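Same chain as my last thread, 836 residues:
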Amino acid sequence: MKIPTATYRIQFRNGLNFDTATGLIPYLKQLGISHFYASPVFTATSGSTHGYDVTNANEIDPTIGGREGFDRMVQALKAAGIGLILDIVPNHMAASLENIWWRDVIEHGKKSRYARHFDIDWSRRLTLPFLGDAFEDALEKGDIVLKPDPKTGQPAFAYFDTYYPVAPGTLTASKTDDLSKTELAELHERQPYRLMCWRDAPRELSYRRFFEITGLAGVRVEDEGVFDDTHRLILELVRSGVADGLRVDHVDGLADPKAYLERLREKAGPDCYITVEKILGKGERLPPDWPVSGTTGYEFIASLSDVLVNDENIAVFSELYDSVVGKPVDMRNELRAAKLMMVEKNFEGEYTTLWKLANSIAGTGGTMYDENDIRTALRELLIAFPVYRTYGTEQGMPAEDTALLHKILRKVSAPALAVQPEILAFLARILCGETSAAAASQAGLFRTRFQQLTGPLMAKSVEDTLFFRQNMELALNEVGAEPLIRTFSLSRFHTEMIKRREEQPAALSATSTHDTKRGEDARARLFTLTEAPQDWAACVKRWHRMNESKVIMLPDGPAPRPALTWMLYQALAGAWPVTLTPEDEQGLQELDERFQSFVEKALREAKLRTNWDNNNEDYEKAVLDYAHHLLSAENRLFLQDFHASIQPFIHAGLVNSLTQTVIKLMAPGVPDIYQGSEALNFSLVDPDNRRLPDFAGLARLLRQDDKTGRGQAERKLNGQLKQYLVATLAGLRQQKPALFQQGDYVPLSVTGQHAENIIAFARVHNDDAVIVAAPRLVLGLPARGFPQAEIVLPPHLAYRHYRDLFSDKEITLSDQLDMAVWPGFSPVILIASSPS
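reply #2:
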């Protein structure tokens, strides 16, 4: 297996197709990229902006160039010596009439060849929740009529521009015209599907969906025939040598992730590089028996907060935020509230299905529990889950998961929750496979459904609810981050990197993705707020006062409330382009357009005073108008104050940006560069983070000649210095693959007055070594650097000759590295010379 030395993630669509991607290859080669990491390239729904709504897994999407364009790109990649990693989506497909498999299921129901391809409960009719009203209401209004499908000529229920096929044999040839509404309703009853309102989906859906997205239907890849049908082209591309690796999307959504990955490994062969999108919770490790190289790297993002957060100020920051909220924020209670809402509302149907299964299993075993007690116990068990899922199968529960389950059961048994212990024990037996033979089938279904629910429940509760409700420090509200405030320390980071080297040295190390809440440089900047929380709070208080006239009083309170303005100013500070000034009206307008989309999404995801299902238009308008006013050129006093006040955070954030770049390229794991993030990325949440980068500008930036790689302020401001670091360090990784793939991670101690302002470590493999030192927590420090800091070198690194990677100067070290030799806040990379 060829392990990548550095990957570059490309988002197809949104203006990027195979031919334009082919044009980027010389740039990627110069950037030091070993593998081109592509978003899904298979045919997706019309107008898809991301490609995860696949309609044909065995066709390259014609809208981005088709197979011919794809083959041209592959040939160019091979000519450049760059590998290809494909993003595959085994968990779900589009529940769209454009999907011929899904369409066939709609038309033929259980008789369809593809009826078992999708995860459908065939004890009832297939629900199609795509109407704006209940079927009866839409029919009464004349929105549903019987018409020939323009594409097939066959009778169909026409709902505006959508045509749902009438099942064969349910409509007599003599009754195709002028059916009364009663007859249409009766015809609808004879269909293998039921058209229904989209609002009813959380309660009544008959198929497993991806998270809350009813337009994405679960696929049963646990069935070997379904696996083969959905992976035919994927495996052809791997076996023919076109694809060198695969990235498996949302592996936790599968019925049995381990079994799927074992089958994928068997079919793809031992040389295919495979990573999985998997969120690791606190203390959780990737199952060691999965035949993959590791995760896609969200846990690496979380680890970086240990380097860049000033832990000494977290308590102060929290108190200041509490004062703005108006009461102490209890994050445990907030997390519980978010999970409770998700269980009882957003995932009500999935929760009810589990409850009914549990009742049935109890009855099969001859034990009668109170149904409400079972529902309560099940709810509390779901809410208490601290990780995405366990991995129980018919063979039982892995030992680690059994221990986790019993730990959760002890927590749920707390008297305050009023859960019956015997019912918890009953649910545990189901999950662990300790039921009677008569109940085995239902118990297996319960276990699978439970494990497929805990992941979406966690994701939607934390990432897409709690992290939009509680905004003390937005940099901590990231995919893969822990929902509860913890201690941040360098020692924890070093421990995590040692474990990463031991457990998944070939996993991807990400800092930005198409799903992160903000770009990596926005996050790096916002981390600096923890270095001066009082200053930040004073700014927010002043800005709120300056814009107070734009706060609107609504029946349910002011819009926005002070806690929301805290978030708005912080989000704006993170997204503010480095060179934007209050006089740049066009720049302000461009930022405002992006900011408006972010604010609308943030309000709806928080689900407090508005949400996606039930928009509070007055509230949204008031907050969006407030946000627009912040960036209005007429709001000059505020803009000047805001711009001046955030300059220290901007400059300290740029230092953080270089530090996290160096760490990502030098620490264990395979550095993944998200498109455009090799320079500066201050994007907001999607779709903002999926915008097409200025690739031509990036290529020009890289071509500009500079031999030193350090020093010039303008190079830091325009992202050129960061880009230079990426290219230089990616090149070093290509020169020394064994050092970075197999080398030990060695934390290095720092002494002196500025010891806490430096992170230092080494990578060591046999006689090969590299020493890394980078600044941290520099807000308010003089720019001269660290005149009083020394890095202590262990014996195997001391008294050796080194080369400064950036200046190319030779240096001989004693048992210490004096940081005074390197002025300013530049990172230091020293490469050991081979022993003579």
